[in-house]
Every structure is written in structure tokens, then in C-alpha cells.
Amino acid sequence: MTLHLTHPAELVESVGRTIGTTGPYKVLQDQVNLFAEATGDFQWIHTDPDRAADGPFGGTVAHGYLTLSLAPSILAEALTVDGVDAALNYGLNKVRFPAPLPVGSVLRATVALTAAEQKPAGVEAVFRLTYEIDGGPRPVCVADVVVLYT
Asked: Is 68 helix (H, G, I), strand (E, B) or coil?
């Protein structure tokens, strides 16, 4: 489900609101391998299914930063804001990876608007993204993502 706002100022009025939860997204080994290629992080726990089968998680797990890198697509699925020239990734306030993301898991993310403020350059909004997997006891990632709407 996507929340549609007609102007960035509506974000200020929506603080404290849960924006929505994304549809299911399956994390595949090919995606993890491509991320390893892009970042140079070839740690076996991510890229070697045979060795990882005997590892601490019983198989490969996605990179934490791969999980985090899904933030723009998660936000785009949960929210559209008209009347902006750009939505700029402005930074992160806090990021945690409380649990591993096993490859092959089905991931969903819930987006909540925790802060929004009119600034000279536009509206600065902070979204709490909570990434969870089906059947997982804890989130695999919780991130406070800052976006500047100009």
C-alpha cells in the first residue's frame, strides 16, 4: 500500500504515523553475489552456500548493507510525495542489524514517519524502517533514514 501526499508539507502533519508495510520481497543468492561484486565483500557467510551450510546460520545470509540499500525502494513503495523537485537521501541517524537475513527469506519492511521539519532547503523527514522476515523472531534491520524533499 502506498501513501500519496500532494505536498511535502503534509509530512510535517503526519509525524508519528505508520506509513505502511511493503509487499513481500524474496532475497536471492544471485542478488547477494551481485552486491558482493559491487562492494568487494566476498565473506564466505554471504557468498559460499556450501561452506555457509556448516556455518552459524545454516546457510548464506545477506550483507547487512545490502539489506539497508533497499531503503530507497522501500520508501518508494510506501510513499509518494508530489510537488518536489527531488527526494534526496540525506543520511542515517541510527542503523542496527539485530538478526541475520538468510538468503531465500521473504522480507517485508514497515515504514513509520518519526520526524519531519520544514528547513530552508525543503522538508527534512526521518523514517523508521523496520525490516522483518517471515517467521523471524526479531527484525533483521532497523534504520532511521533521513530524506530531504526539495
From this structure: helix
Amino acid at 88: L
Biggest distance spanned by C-alpha atoms of the chain: 54
Confidence of residue 2 (pLDDT cuts 50, 70, 90): confident
Contact 121, 81 (CB under 8 A): no
Q: Which residues pair with 95 in a beta bridge?
A: 143
Instruction: State residue 60 phi and psi, 5-degree precision.
Output: -70, 155
Beta bridge pairs of residue 111: 20, 129
CA distance 46 to 70: 17
Look up residue 2 and give its three cell numbers: 502506498
Measured distance CA(75)–CA(112) in Å, rounded: 10
What Rg value do the Cα atoms of the chain yield, rounded?
17
- Residue 87 amino acid letter: A
